[in-house]
Amino acid sequence: MRTSSRWKKHNSRGQALVEFALVVPFFAVFLAGTVFLCRFFGAKLFLMQVAKQGYLMMAYTDSSEEETRSALHRIFDRRLPRGLQDLSVNIEKRTWWRWQPSRIEVQGRLAISGLSKKILGRDGIIVRAELSGYTGTWSRRVPSNFGGLIP
Question: Is residue 150 situated within a structural domain?
């Protein structure tokens, strides 16, 4: 018994449709994961830049912890990435002769929505950046990467 070419062509189209239907969910999960990781690393990079800016302010100027914290909050108000919430700044400023490094930690929560929220079972992921080192007072001005927000 011979099969006609018309039947064979119709059967292969159905096979391609089934294969496509099997591959699409995996591709969608891969794409959503890639977008989520890009958002996470973008938020992490932003917090690292803010921590660096605060550390430079502490290292090169004679600013107190409160002045540094308020300057960092001005940066948050102006340049905050979408989805980053609940920001906090923890500063431990020490003088160089104590032989203990100063430390600045910036933390935020990256909000999650949609299917990622259901898969992970939480509202957000904590993103944290920390810098530590020896600080002192030099008579050099801080180069500001955030549009001159820090004097």
Answer: no
